[in-house]
Design brief:
single chain; 372 residues; alpha/beta; Aspartate Aminotransferase, domain 2; Aspartate Aminotransferase, domain 1; seven-stranded mixed beta sheet; three-stranded antiparallel beta sheet; 14 helices; 12 strands; globular
């Protein structure tokens, strides 16, 4: 996820405006900052890009998740359904918010299984938190339908899927909240940082207060004399992050276009080999090309294939601990997630970069496949 690959003069220019004025805090200091509010500007442009009414810049994707969950006002101990295969931050955010994560199986999309969601809804279930893993959207028609039929909140984790679409609509715009990450290895990066999106004004106001110690951010009222709206945290985005986000957002269409082109070039070679099958996509045209994901017939063949990739100078992705085992350890469940384990054990992942040597990668993958 290579937003880091395109740092250039645009980022320097945006950040220099902040440094020249010396105001890194997103609120106040109006005279000193001379009308420059980078986070506010980034929020507005991101909302327009994603197709949401409101966007709120925060300090990380993890804090975006936690702020969104806390802003729903769920009873402590409420159950949140989420996939067993996701970065551990998804689980951490649920637990630190005071809720109980119940893990669901994945299917061959590597996203949450709607079949398992239906099996695991009980009276204390309050929210579904699907994760658009590795740039590809979940089965949002079914997930939205399940959430509405069961009167459940829906929070989307789009931290790995900024810009991904499902049937022409951006990931992160189907639920009560969408959440995004802009850390250093994301498709759009501000070093660290994240964003929350919503179309609900009341939820936006709750999140806005929650991420800044309960400040209601009233117009024409100084911060020091505001009355606290609610309990909260310091999950604010700073002006340097906002400045980087403005520059990066202008490049995201180019980033995704190049990723898709590079991915297609490699995939077109691999599809000629019968022992390789590909990840399922609910909207293949809408996925953003950050990874090429495919399956070998079984675990042993997948491990051997990854060894051969490394021998030919191609680094396979690492999936199973921080995105699977750590989640099971965290929730201390006895469930084995046999279906998900079998899928992940036969999965091979390649990161797709903008500046990758496509011809060299193709040559290396052909050598692996021809001798496999």
């Amino acid at each position: 996820m290579p937003g880091r690959e395109v740092f250039g003069e645009e980022e320097l220019q945006e950040v220099s405006e902040v440094i020249k004025r010396g105001v890194l805090f997103r609120y106040g200091f109006d005279a000193q900052r001379q009308g420059i509010f980078k986070v506010k500007e980034f929020e507005g442009e991101f909302a327009q890009y994603i197709g949401a009414k409101y966007s709120l810049g925060v300090s990380s994707g993890t804090s975006a998740l936690q702020t969104a969950l806390l802003s729903l006002g769920l009873p402590k101990g409420s159950i949140v359904l989420t996939p067993c295969f996701t970065f551990v931050a998804t689980i951490e955010a649920i637990e630190w918010s005071g809720y109980k994560p119940i893990l669901c199986e994945i299917d061959e999309s590597l996203n949450i299984s709607t079949e398992d969601i239906n099996k695991k809804i009980i009276s204390k279930t309050a929210c579904i938190l699907p994760v658009h893993m590795m740039g590809s959207s979940c089965d949002m028609d079914n997930i939205v339908d399940i959430s509405r039929r069961n009167n459940l909140f829906l929070v989307e984790d789009a931290c790995q899927a900024t810009g991904a679409e499902y049937k022409g609509k951006k990931a992160g715009t189907f639920g009560n909240f969408g959440t995004f990450s802009f850390d250093y290895v994301k498709v759009l990066t501000t070093g660290e940082g994240g964003m929350i999106t919503t179309d609900d004004e009341n939820l936006y106001k709750e999140a806005d207060a929650c991420h800044d110690h309960g400040h209601p951010h009233l117009e024409n009222v100084p911060r020091g004399v505001e009355t606290r709206k609610r309990k909260g945290f310091d999950f604010r985005m700073n002006e340097v992050q906002g400045a980087l986000g403005i520059a990066q957002l202008k490049k995201i269409d180019y980033i995704i276009k190049k990723q898709r082109e590079n991915k297609k070039a490699v995939r077109d070679i691999l599809k000629n080999y019968e022992f390789i099958t590909f990840r399922k996509h609910f909207d293949e045209e809408g996925e953003i090309g950050t990874f090429l994901t495919f399956f070998l017939p079984d675990k042993q063949k997948a491990e051997k294939f990854k060894e051969k990739m490394s021998e030919n100078g191609i680094t396979p992705g690492i999936l199973n601990y921080w995105h699977f085992i750590a989640n099971i350890e965290s929730v201390q469940t006895r469930e084995k997630f046999k279906k998900s384990r079998e899928i992940l054990e036969k999965t091979v992942v390649m990161e797709i970069l903008i500046k990758m040597d496509v011809e060299k990668t193709i040559d290396g993958m052909k050598k692996v496949c021809d001798n496999f």
